[in-house]
Design brief:
globular; homodimer; Ubiquitin-like (UB roll); 383 residues; L-amino peptidase D-ALA esterase/amidase; 2 domains; 23% strand; five-stranded mixed β-sheet
Amino acid sequence: MSVTAAKGFTAAGIAAGIKENGNPDLALVVNTGPRRAAAGVFTSNRVKAAPVLWSEQVLKDGRLSAVVLNSGGANACTGPKGFQDTHATAEKAADVLGVGAIEVAVCSTGLIGVLLPMDKLLPGVEKAAGSLSEHGGEKAAIAIKTTDTVHKTSVVTKDGWTVGGMAKGAGMLAPGLATMLVVLTTDADLDSDALDKALRAATRTTFDRVDSDGCMSTNDTVLLLASGSAGVTPQYEEFAEAVRQVCDDLGQQLIRDAEGASKDIKVEVINAATEDDAVEVGRSIARNNLLKCAIHGEDPNWGRVLSAIGTTAAAFEPDRLNVAINGVWVCKNGGVGEDRDKVDMRFREVHIVADLAAGAETATIWTNDLTADYVHENSAYSS
Amino acid sequence: MSVTAAKGFTAAGIAAGIKENGNPDLALVVNTGPRRAAAGVFTSNRVKAAPVLWSEQVLKDGRLSAVVLNSGGANACTGPKGFQDTHATAEKAADVLGVGAIEVAVCSTGLIGVLLPMDKLLPGVEKAAGSLSEHGGEKAAIAIKTTDTVHKTSVVTKDGWTVGGMAKGAGMLAPGLATMLVVLTTDADLDSDALDKALRAATRTTFDRVDSDGCMSTNDTVLLLASGSAGVTPQYEEFAEAVRQVCDDLGQQLIRDAEGASKDIKVEVINAATEDDAVEVGRSIARNNLLKCAIHGEDPNWGRVLSAIGTTAAAFEPDRLNVAINGVWVCKNGGVGEDRDKVDMRFREVHIVADLAAGAETATIWTNDLTADYVHENSAYSS
């Protein structure tokens, strides 16, 4: 399944020895179909990892034959040598697959500021190419894990065509994407313009609204490859909706596996004057450390929601704000509302609704609670 | 000392019963000097507590005779009743002191969204007025503590005149101020315009650059009162510098007592194109949860510094960035620099220098690490 659910794709996931513990750390996804159309969305962080700089470049002609992904090292902040390493990785994959290097995207994830062990990575590419399979999607999804506790895949099948994908990401989830690496594939027959449009529309309301810890990665990459193998060209709207569904599903899986989290928090902003206002308020709530601690403590501390809303430039009047936590309107008209003891917070999912009473627009941001486990996991990561 | 170090002030701190544990929770500061000049700086949060709305109003004529401060309840998000309670508090103080209510500022700190127990607060104001003393500054500083582990005071004495003050604040420290309540006093003979100018200049580079956890309070207030009792009018520059020193000292005390923190982090941004760029980059670094966790783990993870810089709009080229941690330039020209194992992080203070190589401006932001203790303290606060 995963990236090989759609026809016209093979994939592999192997252990190249990049990770010292011997776990799988190299994935290869190859488009074997008649089409090689592709689109990509990348981190908006201005400090971009070498593989991001490379992949942005090679995607300019809307064509990809393969994607090499490694865990065990981000190849970010590694200077000219890091970029040469990415280039060499693409060249190696191009050689063994018989394609051009500019048809090969590269994705990396792991610690920043460390050069990749090319003596292991390059033989790994050859090894991965040797184990490519139409059933390799699952292994590829496993090989891109870092601190992920589970691998993430999703598939939507429509009338004769399919969109599938894999994702990794557990820390640094944030707007403008996350350290998420995502590869989506489809056997629908579409050109790169249609892919690009559908992918941007989908990420804008899914991955871009997953904000686990407010920290934007140097390596975020979401790729969509089309093989045309199904011989079907779906209506754009139907295709875009299938891409959105897969992105939404994968985004939810990222949130549920976020580092150290014990709660998944859905922040729904309603009655905003504009969608931008709704997103700004949602992010401000989602990034408030004090609120995230309160949710961890199962404390429906709505005052921290209001204080987060108050830091934004969105249109609202303080004395018209309403806040519900798990269905109980604990804040009405900017003041005390229903009894906060009625709020049941025992379950993993917490639903916060912030009513700005300023219009008709809405947006939903997903985040996690802030826990001692998050601190522990991220205190020790590079040690 | 504290607010009574300057001549022409009395103060008191008592237990009014607002806090259920019986600790001191009400402070009163009274200007007895010939002058009653005053200035104030307040939270830029748009959700403002009732005492902030009140105090902003009464300060419009640049004149204050007294300040009532309570801990044990923020009186924020409490609607019209909350504002009436603040008004009644000022009226009560005005009555017992024989001044007008519009000469009385009110400050509150504690949980948001809960009405104050006025049946305890109003008798408390009377009790505090009965124990006013020229030596009451210390007790006043103790009575405004919430989760503070120590009370904070500072005094600068110059040639015949003095600036002194007290502060509370340990959580919610952030830009646009913090939940910090600060009262400064001086016996220098200055009008409210000079006070206002000196106070704004001082807070801009001190309290405004203390950003413990990125969360802006609904209640932040910094007041400066002048009694004129010294009969001396200092040069403005000298006075402004004394105010800055007291603010700087109190700001440092806030950082050192931040909730759950084990490290005080000085983020110094150098060679920025503009001071605004330097502040934006400093804040972005100071608010990066992943970096704050790494510092907690004594891990000189400079990649997280770069990834935080990359989210800003400041002028810089990624491949010209340099980062030092505790004096070791671990990142040079956007890549790996000196050996990170040389970085000694055993001590409480950590010094991060981010060199943008884009100009000549600089700014320093102070923050803390992110710890399991922070999570624990803020998970349980309102329970």
